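Archive entry: two folds, one per protein. Generate the first.
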Amino acid sequence: MNILLVSMPDSFEHMPTVGIRMPNGALSSLAGNVDPHHRVAVADLVLVQREVRATLERLVRDQQPDLVGLSIMTFQRKTALRIVELLRALRPDVRVAVGGYDPSLAPEAYTDGPAPVDFIVRGEGELTFRELVRALERGSGLDGVAGLSYRMGGAFHHNPDRSVHGLADGEIRPPNRDARVLQGYEFLGRQVDVVETSRGCTFDCSFCSIIEMRGRNFHTFTFDRVLADIRDARDHGARAIFLVDDNITLNVRRFEALCQAIIDAGLDDIDYLVQAMTSAIAAHGATLAPLMRRAGFRYVFLGIENILDDDLRFLRARAKNALRGSGQSAGNATTAAIEHLHRHGMYVVGGLIVGNPDDTPASIEANLEFARRWVDYPYIQHPTPYPRTPMTREFRERGLVINENLEEYDGTTAVVRTEHVAAEEIEFLRWRAERWMKVRHMRAVVKASPRFVLRNWRTMLAHTFRGGSFLKALLGLEDERAVFARYRAIRKREREYV
């Protein structure tokens, strides 16, 4: 069987694609878990954002797929449905499967309408997709494939959920990077790849889709598997690797052991990026941070979420951001965590959420000022009502959702207001502050990747200041409100990929 696996071209706003183009790790994992006699191609359309239609036409012509699988997040839904229509036009008999957060949590969006899909792979996809392909190959029934929804006889049938699978037994095979048919994955001029060492999280943050997908649990791959995966990524050319675990610092001792294993295996010649909890870094940073740096860690995405206690309470993120002493909470752990990371030469990507239901201009500005002072690169988002999260229920119950255009649910478009601040004003405050934080970080990028900056500094500044002029902004000669309006119009046009 010929199988084409596709990720969407829609990307997050925080960094221009000239600076970062990450592979979709789920697709290469699916490719690695299909029986090897099938012909599988993986295409990350983020690599061809302005050539999506032409690329799909070429891939369908060259691959002649019998089955196409699409990985979709909520803000990518509109693009995905247009791609499904294009695929039907190019190859009328092709069967289409969708998976990822959005189809798993909002399957009705893919079962209705003029071009419904054929299959929905809900939750973790590797085993469900493998069994789907086997059933299609045999021509057998689909009713026994757990985690699958499928169209038959003009109606959709939803099989029982698949239980979350442990990772230590080897049933989920390593990814197949050879299946990728597009090139150009980069992080600041270095070829980049993604590696997974664990899945899941036991916290219950109100904004998180992970616990809606797989519950509150934590499973780990063996170190032998992880190190082999890193080695395979390096053999395929990666010089930077993003460890994409949901919460790798949930088990700090394991993470410390992993850092040491990376060093012992001679895999510390790679730049690593990772997501981390502030509480874990703050509590263990004295020993963990130097070990991370020796292993090659360079950027750490810290889930700060918010610096105000009331907002952390709404986000259900107080526990994972608490500084603990003598077994009790002693305040916010963020500054202690950042100090540990900075002391050992790592950069902090600051993940904050502003625009929560009771936020005022002052509380938003407090978080922005914290980011200006403490974080190296901003990753500031607005709360976004993704399907079935606790956050979504509260925003809707309070009548604060003001935008139902899902293609704008990208985290940096404010689609909800607060009780005190309009959505557009929240977005303006974040946009105005973030531009200068990004410019400030270019000094660090020059030090680490001078040739990349020499080639791309104009493109990066143009992206950050689109709608206006960097020079005029620097000299205070532009009307920020007018520039912001032009930026929003440009951003709207950018979302039209197909």
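Generate the second and append.
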Amino acid sequence: MKKISSLLMAVAAMFMVSCGGNAQKPAEAAAEKLPVGVQLYSVRGDMEADFKGTLQKVKAMGYDGVEFAGLFNNDPAQVNAWCKEIGLEPISAHVPLADMLADIDKVIADYKAVGCTYIVVPYVTEERRPGGELFLQMVEEIRAIGQKCKEAGLTLLYHNHDFEFKKLESGEYGLDYLYSNVPADLLQTELDECWVKYSGLNPAEYLLKYSGRSPVVHLKDYNLEGEMEGDPYALIGLNEGEEKKSSAFEFRPLGKGLQDVPSIIEAAHQAGSKWLIVEQDEPSMGLEPMQCIQTSMEYLKSIGAK
């Protein structure tokens, strides 16, 4: 019996060698895949109409977690309970900077109760952008908010658009100035790769620049024909009264636009990112918002990223 057992073990070992370790590769590949969440602003109308039901549909699509853009008057503890019941990780929350400045303690308490790991500055108004009269003040405001978050066991992230890539008198991008003047233990990145590319930079290369400081990466695709005119932003209720975006610019589901999504995902692995977040500010191509995020998930599955 011992001889037979030894022979079987030898055969098994030879099989593993002959396969080049392929028997381990599926498990290794699965371990390398980053979890994928969705920014719920993408389906804000659905969230407002049926908060829990939309979370259930998001989970059924294959998403692992969610990034909030408001709780729609739901109790934070209840939201946490729904996430646990459904099996979604409450990753993070976009919270307007004005709300953080007004009552950061409440913001922290609410999203700790939800179970979030990160709180995100999603957007800043014109006077706080690079070159604006309050830009330097905004950097210090973010430093103070980051300190509060750190003390509470949360991490503050900054979500960029294209205007942070305006160069300062020093020749430095405003976004780089922010990250070089607020330490990494108080502020980390949430790079929106749509706006990185729209600004003329290589999204994968820019992500790698912030290796070790990019826990959450926004995957967003878009199409652009001709010159951009007007306001391209869709922003948690902050673009009311602004000029509507030109039809030349269109947000798209992943794989339907200009982005090299696989290169961004590879860079996210190399940068040590923990989450990929799908975001589509506005629906397109005749699809409803829920269909858009479903299409993005199907694309991620088709390239083996999910």
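Annotation attached to the second fold: The chain has twelve helices and ten strands. Residues 108 and 274 are 21 Å apart (CA to CA).
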